[in-house]
Amino acid sequence: MTKTDLSAALRDAISSVLETMFFSSLEFVDKYQIEDWRGFERICACRLNFKGPLCGYLTVLTPDRTLGVLTADFMGLEKAQVTVEHLQGALSELANMITGDVFSRHDPEGVYQLELPRLITAPGEIPGPEKPGMVRCHVRTLNGPVEVQLGITNSEL
Q1: Tens digits of residue pLDDT in 40-52
Q2: Global confidence as pTM
Q3: What domain range includes position 110?
């Protein structure tokens, strides 16, 4: 397995999940411009750890307003009906679906144990700059940016 293979599986999973389940148009960008994140009050993040042939984590980050629109579209609600519990549930489900999709594409015979997604509230818990073993995808939706980080802790990429 190469970093390129895993990156392709991650991009395909993100496209599939955001377009199919969250009804969101998207484009992948090499790097964000600072303007992509400017004007948002709060960043929401969720991390899901996994074990199996590959061990590691998947982290999803997005501004609160972007998550609000994604959540409303995912749940079939008006934006004004979306509660904090809806936001937390949708973000957790987004991490869960992307992780499952990545491994069903990359390693369909592999058996993986996914932990429950957990919301990240402390900035120090969000992985920083890309490091060895990490694949990072930058996505622009019509309503703002989404970043997905996949870190592998038991293998060289």
Answers
A1: 778 899 999 999 9
A2: 0.90
A3: 3-152
